[in-house]
Design a protein that fits this description.
Blueprint (H helix, E strand, L loop, with lengths): L2 H6 L8 E2 L1 H5 L4 E4 L8 E5 L16 H8 L8 E4 L3 E3 L2 E3 L9 E6 L5 E7 L14 E2 H16 L6 E7 L15 E8 L5 H9 L3 H15 L9 H23 L1 E2 L21 E2 L23 H16 L5 H7 L1 H18 L7 H17 L4 H11 L16 H6 L3 H15 L3 H14 L7 H14 L3 H16 L1
Antiparallel strand pairs: 1-7, 2-4, 3-10, 5-6, 7-8, 8-11, 9-11, 10-11, 12-13
This protein binds adenosine-5'-triphosphate and magnesium ion (MG).
Adenosine-5'-triphosphate binds next to loops.
Length: about 475
Amino acid sequence: MNLADTTTHNPFISLIYETAIESLGHEYYDVVNAAEFPQHILRWRNDDLLPTLGLTPQQVTNEHFVRAFGKFEQRQPLLALRYHGYQFGEYNPMLGDGRGFLYGQVRGLDNKLYDFGTKGSGKTPYSRGGDGMLTLKGGVREVLAAEMLNCMRVNTSRCLSMVETGMSLWRGDEPSPTRSCVIIRMSQSHIRFGTFERLNYLKRSDLTRRLLDHVIATYYSHLQGEEDKYTFFYAELSKRVGKLAAQWMAAGFCHAVLNTDNMSITGESFDYGPYAFIPNYDPHFTAAYFDYNGRYCYINQPRICRFNLELLQKALKDVIPQTDMEKGIKNFDQEYKLEYQNLMLKKLGIERINTFKGEELLQSTLSFLKYYPVSYHGFFADLASTFSSKWQNNEENILKGSEIKNCFGTTELFINWSRYYHQILTDLSPNQLENVAKVLSENNPRTVILRPVIESVWKSIIEEDNWQPFYDLLHSISELTAEK
Ligand SMILES: Nc1ncnc2c1ncn2[C@@H]1O[C@H](COP(=O)(O)OP(=O)(O)OP(=O)(O)O)[C@@H](O)[C@H]1O
Ligand SMILES: [Mg+2]
């Protein structure tokens, strides 16, 4: 096939791109060019996402991926979106897409509008001193985080592709020179809290209202036509963010950089930089080495999400009545509490129980996990792999033979926990008891990408250019997802 044929028939380039953001007007973005890279090696293609785009893996070659998402052929305009944000508590008006752009917007077969956004695609007017690039390790980590979180049913963006781009980058936090890549992230929207903060900073309530109308029409369409749609929007956003915070916490995920420019207006999780999955239940676990005060530590995440919603009130005050937003944010508290308990009880194999009993079990579980050096994910995975209906007969049977019971079985906290757990199991009917095993296995993946797991995958890449462990890991995550 000659060059013209390949590009003309590239299924990605032939997708129908909608112009929702572009049509909003030039005040929201800058038209930019993509960098030209010395090399283009496709390292990851997310075939799981293709059906949503109406494509099959057979229709799309690696070359199609590279030409569309590494060389950015035949796609214009590329839009660097403008935004500001509160970073570690300080307002920063110097932000914006500094190493990415909105490549395009495509409606999925599910009728949702998806954004394809780049990361590592070159300099823009918002790059400041930066090189506009993404390190290969950064790309590998972002791909893995999104797939793992998706497997754990967290509402997350995903990576559609990762192309290695052959540049040598210098970074303070990676042995340098280090390799480079560009990723395409498929998300619900890249409109951030910070997008609105910028408009408020510029005192452009007309632009705020226009953007809000677009957000509601596109991502909260059931509110269209409501007289109080702005008020309802804020209340629902608060609820969605509450749910997301609960999902992170139950997944044992520490995002690490919860600045308002990393908070999506749809309530979706994205931007996986220095994140980590917690090794054990340490409330003060902090993932970013530069987060000196532990501002975004694991246990602070719900509080910070709520605080970010409060900050957003300032940006929306010209359009939404303040008193309505003060009421609306209560949705966050309710949703967080409910969803966190619900998700944690599922991790214990329990669905639909009395809230009070559920809370007692949850608190005793956390007390045990907090006090002893038990792996957070290991504890739940052990429950899932060793569960037996015999646990209902006698609390002594619970986790019998496991390392956890062998080490901590005689401690007061373990005995307390197993007593609560046993009490709940005894109340279950035989059918419900059977369901426990299923719920346990659905909610506790055997593989979780703790830092050493990621580092070992990265070691193979960097030392031997061996990508197999990376693909094997992604394959096992994808198999876990399919089992559910
Ligand atoms: N290497 C770089 N070159 C230019 N700008 C950068 C670079 N790294 C980060 N930035 C910019 O710094 C700001 C904060 O970066 P942050 O890491 O939160 O975002 P990001 O990871 O680049 O993008 P996203 O939030 O879309 O995942 C953003 O404005 C970002 O574009
Ligand atoms: Mg960011």
